[in-house]
Amino acid sequence: PTRRSSDLGLADSKNLGLDRTIESVTGLTSYKLSGAFTLSTITAYRRFDDAEVLDVDGSSLTLIGAAASAGGDQFSHEFRLNYEGGMLSAFAGASYFYENGFSNLPVQYNEREMLAVLTGQLNRAAPPPNGFFDSPTYLQAYAPAYLKGLAAKYGYALDTATATGIAANLQNNHWEEGATQGKTKSIDLYGDVTVHASDSLEFSAGLRYSHDDKVSGCFAQDGDRSILRSVLVTLTQPAAVRSAMLAALAKPGAASLANLPASVVPNFGFGIEPTSNNGDRFYKPYTDDGFSWRATARYALAPQSSLYATYARGRRPLQYAPTSAAVPYTAPIFGLVAAETVDSFEVGYKTLALDGRLRLDTAAYFYSYDNFSTTLRNGPQLIAANAGKADAYGLEAAAD
């Protein structure tokens, strides 16, 4: 049967899935300036927005539900001048790109179920019946026992009365939202030249310069305090502080700031900490530029067979990846991820056989990365990070 967002504990009842709208228009022009020169332009505008309801944990439980949305506008324009002149062919151009985009991710956590998962108490072979995690049996017997076991791992003997009070405050619908926004303005200048040394041999070389002006922004907010995350943080505190905070978390309605001020227990989120004033937006402007290039040689063994060798330098611009701070109601951390570069080397052979009915391609390649960009887990968050150096190599063969 089709799961709906209400099955995840979310307020609405939409089907799980993605609803996306894309609108775009592109204009192409070409002008013959002379016998050897042609000027062409490409102008494009694109707008998109989407809404997605997803079951993040992928289980039959209501552990994590989310309703993500994203959208943006893009505009680009490019001039390109082409030259064809016998032994020499070339092109040069300039392009401009603009984007303004956003992404929102409201998430809802079931802390009662999450406690059973985090403490390894969920029996996957025999899943609990519907409603078990909201039942008095779970909240008054199982959950307090799980909390006491969790505290014991930190060397703390949690008393039953405090554990029962905390269990009663665990939410089945803790809500929080993180959002990012970015603006990009990019200018590229490029050129490429090919020399036809003979009927069988040609050499090509190209160079590109890129300049980016960017702004990265983010904010985070939540509806109330995550009791489960508060317990996990509290268990790492000194003994005197720990006892007082756990006692406060056991008071009725401790999830609400009206009942338990942030000065006693900070307004901890489960997956992401709220920014100052529970939703202030923060922005980080920055610029970046750099060069990329390529060089290629190709030799035709026969009209339909050729050998080639290529060296290229690729580049991914630097970025500032926002992550929430460890303390609620503070500014996010914009971690610098340095520009990634890759040097690629490739040699290969291509041919057509059987009167063009069979294509054969073979290649050997080697890639060497600096500042390899990857994604790491920081608690419940996924963040961009610099993984240092990396190499990749291999052989490829294809026939069609």
> What is the overall pLDDT average?
90
Low-confidence runs of at least 5 consecutive residues: none
| Main sheet: strands, sense, barrel | 11 strands, antiparallel
Radius of gyration: 29 Å
**What portion of residues belong to β-strands?**
over 45%
Net shape: elongated
| Secondary-structure element pattern, one letter each | EEEEHHHEEHHHEEEEEEEEE
User: What structural class do helix, strand and pairing data support?
Assistant: mainly beta
The span between the termini is 41 Å
Number of strands: 15
Q: Helicity range of the residues?
A: 10-25%
User: Strand order, biggest sheet?
Assistant: 1-2-3-4-5-6-7-8-11-12-15
Query: How many helical elements?
Result: 6
Describe this structure in words.
The protein has 400 residues and is mainly beta. The protein has helices at 111-118, 136-152, 160-169, 227-234, 239-249, 276-279, and strands spanning 17-32, 37-55, 64-85, 88-109, 174-196, 201-222, 282-302, 305-316, 319-323, 333-337, 340-353, 358-370, 373-378, 381-386, 390-399. Strands 1-2-3-4-5-6-7-8-11-12-15 form an eleven-stranded antiparallel sheet, with no helix packed on it. It has a two-stranded antiparallel sheet with strand order 9-10. Strands 13-14 form a two-stranded antiparallel ribbon. Helix 4 (227-234) runs antiparallel to helix 5. The protein is elongated.
